[in-house]
Specification:
five-stranded mixed β-sheet; disordered N terminus; 168 residues; 10 strands; Immunoglobulin-like; alpha+beta
């Protein structure tokens, strides 16, 4: 059975890469990847983080806070805690990327993640993401564990253009 699961995962990864659906860069330990960096920013350098934002994930299928505001080009350290009894994760991406990734997760819930725009946490554990937001606009985040996204476990980072002397 394990061999079939590994073969299925490998075939899925090849199909995603060949399809050109935006999952071309970065690879999760589960065999799929995506190009989140291009659309929502890039991994940040911890020493350049301008602030820390603490986020709690819990079994009410909510992130606290679920609405975060940052400035364009700001590097933020997110300290994420799973205060629930279920496994949860936080994944940064566009709404489209998150929905596509969620559909894959529903078919392969055993996948583990190892990309810089996401963290998966067991109950009672904490982790962090350091991220630089390089474009103004909305960056979504969600828990892609099966059922959690559908239950509303989502949030958004609103990235505002930095004020310049000309716009102040």
């Amino acid at each position: 059975m394990k061999k079939n699961s590994i073969c299925s995962g490998a075939m899925l990864a090849l199909a995603l890469l060949a399809s050109g659906n935006g999952f071309a860069n970065g690879t999760h330990a589960g065999g799929h990847g995506h190009d989140a960096d291009a659309s929502v920013g890039k991994p940040g350098i911890a020493s350049k983080a301008t602030r820390t934002v603490s986020i709690d994930m819990n079994d009410t299928m909510r992130f606290i806070p679920a609405d975060i505001h940052v400035k364009k080009n700001e590097t933020v350290r997110f300290v994420i805690t799973n205060s629930g009894v279920l496994k949860h994760e936080l994944v940064l991406g566009t709404e489209k990327e998150l929905k596509e990734h969620y559909e894959v997760m529903k078919k392969h819930p055993e996948m583990e993640h190892a990309d810089p725009n996401m963290v998966t946490l067991a109950p009672g554990k904490s982790g962090e993401i350091v991220w630089q937001f390089t474009k103004a606009g909305k960056v979504d985040f969600a828990c892609l564990q099966p059922g959690h996204y559908d239950a509303g476990m989502k949030g958004a980072v609103n990235v505002k253009k930095a004020l310049t002397k000309a716009t102040q």
